[in-house]
Amino acid sequence: MIPQVTRTAPVFRSFDEAKARAFYLDWLGFTWVGEHRFDADAPLYAFLRLGEFHLHLSEHHGDATPGSSVMVHVDNLRAWHASLPPMPTCVRGWIRCPGACRCRSGTPSATG
Prior knowledge:
Layout: E1 11-13, H1 17-27, E2 31-36, E3 45-50, E4 53-58, H2 77-83, E5 90-91, E6 94-97, E7 101-104
Parallel strand pairs: 1-4
Antiparallel strand pairs: 2-3, 3-4, 5-6, 6-7
């Protein structure tokens, strides 16, 4: 039997909550669904959503090592990206995200 996957949520590393909120909420339009901290001084673990896409952000050491890769297939990505206001960290299809990740838009090959 193969289980039916109903949802995935990539985890991206975050180092600065204010920058993460500015990038994911203010610029990309995500909704901040919730967050968890073990106590007031503990690192943030946040739950975000954009439509049906779920994303988690973690300030916990060891979570989502910077430089890791996640592939997300998105319909009409270029049109959505073109609708966003200018962002100074966007260069030639790459978006520099807080937490040292980079997002790249492209068209999948016939094999992938």
